[in-house]
Predict the 3D structure of the following.
Amino acid sequence: MNQFTEFTSKSHLFNLIDHTYHRLSFVDSNYIYRAVNKIYTTMFNRAYNEIIGHHVAEILGTNVFHNIVKPYLDRALAGEEICYESWFDFVEAKRSYLLVRYQPIYEDSKVIGVVVSSTDITERKELEEEKALQNKLLIEQSRMVQMGEMVAFVAHQWRRPLHTLSTYQLRMRCRLEEVSCSCIDDELQRSEELLEHLSQSLESLYHFHSDYGGEILVKISVEEVGHLLEPHLNAANIKLEIDLSDALRIHTEIPSSRMLHLFLVFIENAIEALEKSDKNDKRIRVSGWENSKTVTVNIHDNGDGMTLEQSMMIFDAGVSTKGDNGHGYGLYFARKILSEQLGGSVELIRNEEGVCFRLTFPKRLA
């Protein structure tokens, strides 16, 4: 009866181990699998004998073994109980976020191996990361709103003094007509040009806080962004070439400020790419065309381009090529606005010379 009970208990125990959702394994001191449960074989789509007797690196992958697993296993083999969480990019199984526990097993006061228990908590981790991302985006949106309100306030405060200054200069010019002084006339001409530039920049800033829709002229929108970025362009010795038809337009009920924000993000990105380049002739060319349903705008820089790896991650949240100076949400947020709010799309085109962002908008935005 005792033997039968013992046999039955062991049978039930093995059955329980095979039906648990925890991935269980026993690894010896040479990193060789000596036992695994059923879910472990299912996870890697291997038969039991294709895992037992094989090295951990062979099953998990060399990178996972050396960069994540081995340091913890070595500590467990030294007698330490280990618990940790990590993303695992397996070679033969889907990417997972696991909660892992290592329990040393002793025989004659010597550690002969480690019992490994891992629980898949990928879904929970993804929800946590999504929540953290949404919080970051809310903060970013809040900053944009605050910046827009500040810009609108500054634009409002500047308009009257600029108008007054312009009036004074007009009076001075009228008086100078009575006196012949070319040097003063030249200085006055330059100051009038500067005032005009400030006025245009101020109008562009004001539009960045506008909450109205209507008909957007693409060329004028890009020119307004160019006025705002002119100091940055001049400082970096970059020429902005705008090759857009005056007739290129989009009808929208969405605030036009969002369109300006999109152009600003992509042109700024091109400027930053060119700043890293050693080329002498630095150019950003904005061109576009339309068909019966869409308007397409290309923003193309002639910089040094980017690697395939960079191009695959450029729109990911938190990815920045600016190191400590960037937060990595500009392009992510811009694509989100373009696709989710404007119903358009953005495509990255890697050229032999530089990078091109292709923005596509429906002609009529709801």
Summary: The chain has three domains: 2-120, 137-209, 212-366. The CA atoms of residues 138 and 255 lie 19 Å apart. Residues 122-176 form the longest helix (55 residues). Residues 6-10, 323-327 have pLDDT under 50 and may be disordered.
